[in-house]
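Need ATP synthase subunit delta's 3D structure for a figure. Predict it.
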Amino acid sequence: MQGNRAAARYAKALLGLAKDRNVTREVNEDMILISETIKNSDDLRVFLKSPVIKNAMKKNALLEIFRSVNGMTSGLFQILIENNRLDILPLVADNYKRLYNELNGVQVAKVTTAIPLTTELEAKIQQKVKELTGNEANIENIIDESIIGGFILRVGDIQYNGSVGAQLKNLKRELQNNTYVSKI
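Structure prediction for ATP synthase subunit delta:
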């Protein structure tokens, strides 16, 4: 993805500065807010990427939308505007969250399910994460109806596929390779 390397550098610099000033948690909360807000607003995404809208207007809009953010975060807006890189703000936010989690030893478990997770399912998945990695993790739920049922769990490099779709594919492969069934 274009701009990801630059976003990683901005995020790393921001984390270093936030550590120096002891505000890493506050800036992480800001990055979560920024990331979610931009993901959920097509208009804001288009507004930030538009070459027609002046940077001063973009800065004023960001400061108004994210009025409650830390001074360090509003400083990030200014730096990105000065360097004509405001379009990578969502990437910077995502990279910062990842670096913050690594710094604090927090894993993120991405769980793909056919339906939204209930609290009971979340507890079972948390137990599976602990079984696979030995640690707990923040659970991020992704909904994909094509898996039919069950779940796909990704934690770092580990993937556990307990989906009905995967089980059906395995069964189909076994039946195709079965010499007795193929002769019928």
